[in-house]
Amino acid sequence: MLFIATGGKTLYFGEIGNSSKTLAGFFESHGARPCGEDENPAEWMFEVTGAAPGSESTQDWPAIWKNSEEHKAVKAELARMKEISRQQLAFDDPNELRPYAAPFATQFWVVLVRVFQQYWRTPSYLYSKVALCLFSVGSKTSKSITKSLLTLVQALFIGFSFWKMPNSLQGLQNQMYAIFMLFTIFGNFCTQILPHFVTQRALYEARERPSKTYSWKVFILSNILVEIPWNSLMALFIFISWYYPIGLRQNAVEADQVAERGALMFLFILAFLIFAGTFADMCVVGVETAEAAGNIANLLFPLTLIFCGYVKSTSNLHFYL
After folding, report:
1. Same domain flag for 170 and 307
2. Any bridge partners for residue 10, and if so which?
3. Do 291 and 214 share a structural domain?
4. Which residue in 24, 45, 112, 262 is deepest, having the highest Cβ count within 10 Å?
5. Residues 23-49: pLDDT tens digits?
6. 61 is a domain residue
7. Which of 10, 39, 66 is the last residue in one of the domains?
8. Cα(205)–Cα(116) distance, rounded to whole angstroms?
9. Smallest Cα–Cα separation from 226: which of 102, 104, 111, 106?
10. Per residue in 265-281, pLDDT tens?
11. Do residues 203 and 99 touch, judged by C-beta distance below 8 A?
């Protein structure tokens, strides 16, 4: 018999015995009053454990069972049965010892399709990402659609702030500053990803992980890869609304390198967004809350700017990039 208390805690698991002597003997040996000859063992059991209406028990029966010799004997027997079963299965079919029913490739494909569907069915997240990258570049808000739309007055903020900079020293400085301002979307970009990841991880840990549906590696890879197509689209939006207005294409025209410079700049933007997405996953994967992960990301990203290297000029001055 398996006797479970409120909350799913085990009170007893084992043989009942003739006339419930084995069951009653366990509780009596740990402080319960003796079961009378004319008493119903089931009613007596509920009464001494405090499970019956109006009854109370001052003893912690789940803890008593957990520390009892009977519990140790049950664990030992289960371990013995598991070992015998493992040996038999290994002899008959080694594949039966796999922790998951489906192979890794099947798990990955099914979960990847499901995560793509989750993103498609969460338009608020995608609209917020588009609004951040297209309309509010350089803004300090945009954690949701509402915050993103509040920045529509700054549409194409950087592009129109540095509209068609001339090919001069001042124009080059302004273009470099525009590149730096593009990096300011990093924090908001990560902030959008973190709560979405935390929600999916909570579902995985509560449902899929205990049931051994698919592995943690599949979960992480799916969430990383599903961001790449959307970030590629965001890179295209940023490239169009930022590269052309600030005059970088005009510089390429004068140097007769339009295709090369345009493609290279697009790849730089794409690499930056993919880096931001994987960076956010790295910060949140071992952290319980999105807020704590956001604090870690805000700390680490400035360090990547500070310690990204330097170039030594001919005059021995160090210009930090």
Report:
1. yes
2. 4
3. yes
4. 45
5. 888 888 888 888 888 888 888 888 888
6. yes
7. 66
8. 19
9. 111
10. 888 888 888 888 888 88
11. no
